[in-house]
Design brief:
Structural class: alpha+beta
Order of helices and strands: EEEEEEEHHEEEEHHE
Shape: globular
Number of domains: 1
Helix content: 25-40%
CATH topology: Glutamine Phosphoribosylpyrophosphate, subunit 1, domain 1
Strand content: 25-35%
CATH class: Alpha Beta
Strand order of the largest sheet: 6-7-8-9-10
Largest sheet: 5 strands, antiparallel
CATH superfamily: Aminohydrolase, N-terminal nucleophile (Ntn) domain
Length: 180
Amino acid sequence: MKFHATTILTVRRNGVVAMGGDGQVTLGTAVMKADAVKIRRLMDDKVLCGFAGASADAFALMERFEEKLKDYPSNVPRAATELAKEWRTDRALRRLEALMTVADVKGTLLVSGTGDVISPSDGIVGIGSGGNYAIAAARALLNNSDMEAEAIVREALAIASEIDIYTNANIVVEVLECSS
């Protein structure tokens, strides 16, 4: 059986970055947990990290990312790039099935095991089973409303939860004040 776990969405607007995730973890056709928290604050609350995929894999990656942040404390893109390089080349890490999105005051990144470190041009990143639904909703809300980043994340994830069977409406959002 395969675990399906989550939708994570990150949005930047008006000097704020908001990252949110739903709480559902599904095994096969059964909801195993409805209130999982998949967003973490790192580096004294200066970095947000969200993960989707196999939970143990995601936690392993998050721990490695935190180590990279300690090596490059004021350079999140460099820490993410070093993690992606290690993830892609290390035999054990290559088998990990997860994606991460990270954000600090300067930027938002998507980090994958294929070596991708992507900074979105519009400040929106969505990962997990409902990620594309959440991105579409967030872009519509960003372009057609005056809603703040946190409200956009909550509403877009709620919309995704109505479409994606692996996403629920138990939403947790973390917010950082930022420079862009």
